[in-house]
Amino acid sequence: MNSRNDIDEKMKAASTEGDVNLLYKLIEEDPYVLEYIDLIPFVQTPLHIDASIGHLQFGTEIMRLKPSFAWKLNQQGFSPIHLAMQNNQKNMVFRFVDINKELVRIKGREGLTPLHVASQNGEIDLLANFLLVCPNSIQDVTMRSETASHIAVKNNQYEALHVMVSWLKTTRQRAATEMEKLILDCKDENGNNILHISAQNNDLKVLRLLLKTKINLKAENLENSTALDIAGSAEIKGILLGVGAKQSSKVNDPPILEDRFRRLEMYEKYREIKMMNRIGGYNW
């Protein structure tokens, strides 16, 4: 009988070569061979190895036998679909998503999802497919509170941003208008929405695209600056002023979170008093 190390080496060989027959020979020798791998929290599974190479049949068989492998992160913080994208194995990426659309939302290193990676690299075909099969993935943020839109703007991926903006405008999801505003107004860890970033980077093309949306022109970042405050050129400032953007000193601040909670607390007390009076036989 083969030792544990021998079986591990043969499994690596099967994964590298995409050898389904060898896979089943190893399962015959040790029915728990895949279970042992699954017990390890962070591990390079056979699916990780195969995803980097692109053997569709082997990868599909492994996913069928052990769906949990698709959600495993290796020691570097990457899932199989992340590795497939890193190695330009697009057919494998599409296969992953065909089998389980929720893999579009799996968070790898630094909270990056496949949608974030596609946005970062400007992979329009993957981006469009991800949004089609898993619309809610547009809501996911990285550990820096960045949406896929933030990532596109920060990496000068105009076409990727254009795809997402167009999708937000045309999606038939319930409350689509609110979704568009929510995503575009989302702020990163510095409190910047994507209008802040485009203005600061003097990115005229992105700025003009965003001004056709419902993005908040008066949003302030953590330094209490609006997009107009941090605009990188006189041209950008002129365009923003022309559409009604304001400097921070001229923005009417919305109620702070503390005030909102205070009002909510008062309302809850009112409801409690009203309920007690009803119990006591009094009607308001």
UniProtKB/TrEMBL annotation:
The keyword Transmembrane helix does not apply. GO terms for cellular component: plasma membrane. It is found in: Cell membrane. Keywords: ANK repeat. ANK repeats lie at residues 110-132, 190-222. InterPro entries: Ankyrin_rpt, Ankyrin_rpt-contain_sf. It is a peripheral membrane protein. SMART domains: ANK (SM00248). Pfam families: Ank (PF00023). It comes from the Eukaryota. Its main location: membrane. This is Uncharacterized protein.
